[in-house]
Amino acid sequence: MIRIDFLGTGNAFTPPGRLHALTLIDEKILIDTPPTLLTQLQRKGMKTSEIEHLLFTHWHADHTFGFPFFMLERKYISDPNGKNNLNIYLRPGGKDKLAELCNIGFPGSLENIGDMADWYEEEKFELPETNWSFERFPVCHTPETDPHGYELTHNTGFKLLHCGDSGPCKEIEERAEHSNIVILEMGMPDIGDFPYHYTPNNVIEFSKKFPKSLILVTHNFASSKNISEGFKIPELPKEVFQLEDGDAIEINQNGEIEIINNS
Ligand SMILES: [Zn+2]
Ligand SMILES: [Zn+2]
Question: What phi-psi label fits residue 32: left (phi over 0), alpha (psi between -120 and 50 degrees) or beta?
Answer without folding.
Answer: left
